[in-house]
Amino acid sequence: MTAPLLRPLTTTTWAWVHERTGWGYSNAGLIASGDQALLVDTQFTLDYTRQLLSEIAAAVPHARITTVVNTHGNGDHTWGNQLVDGAEIVTSATSAAHLCQEMGPGQLAALSRAEPTTAAHAYIAEHFGAFDFTGVQVLGPTRTFSGSESVNVGGVSVELMDLGPGHSAGDVAVHVPADGVVFTGDAVFNGSHMVVWSQHLSPCILACDQLLATGADTFVPGHGPVTGRAGMTGFRDYLERVWLQASAHAAAGVELADAARLVFEDQAGGWEHPERLFTAVAAAYREAGVDGIASGTMACVEGMAELAAASATCSASAGTTTMSR
Questions:
Q1: What single-letter DSSP state applies at residue 49?
Q2: CATH number at 5-317
């Protein structure tokens, strides 16, 4: 794997992009003009954030980061906040209100390194055990906004968009109108399937419509390669297919676990982590009013872990059958 790269998009915007699309490897964005800079998200660990800040200092040595916009409260976008000295940290009021529900670095580290006793614990250990959260002190927002807000960065107009619940309880996007660039946060994934922590799937589709309505041509997703309008439209349509299929299963009385497997079979494609489709199906079931759908982070992780295990078992069985012929 190559190291993440600070990629220039225009004369005033840059995208920090990881080649990896797995858990924890999140993108970030930079808007810089004159002696001011705005950073869209930090990183999961202090080491990754130091690497990001070092690349920024080399790219715009005369600019100081005066504002950090957190697109949502997940640790892979916020746990490096403490390293941006003196910056105002901004997010939506909805996102800030739900920070108390976020898993902290100590809890995640403990779960990642403990002897796995459940499928969920084993899944966490597999995907998060390699990260080092030493020294992380969670630093929340110093200011919030609702709806939308304009920010001036060295003469460049930047629009903050409150997308509401979708991937998280409160998602934020950052639009640079003059450059035709949107930093979407985790309202958009590219190359890996989306996680729907918020229990709301249809708003994820509406958020894509909002992002497309900006007229922008370049979209920096929370995870995966930078994309254009065609990629955005394709992602939006994928979410709609999942929502329609899951809603139909809910209306037909199909059990959630069975519906997740059916959607997995149809929608997994070639993207990483198709087990995350469990969270989208569960969200569609809640929206459909199905009773008894467990909520919360660990319930989602348990569902993903079980779907991943079921998929692996089916793949192994198919391979065995093929080999015996």
A1: H
A2: 3.60.15.10
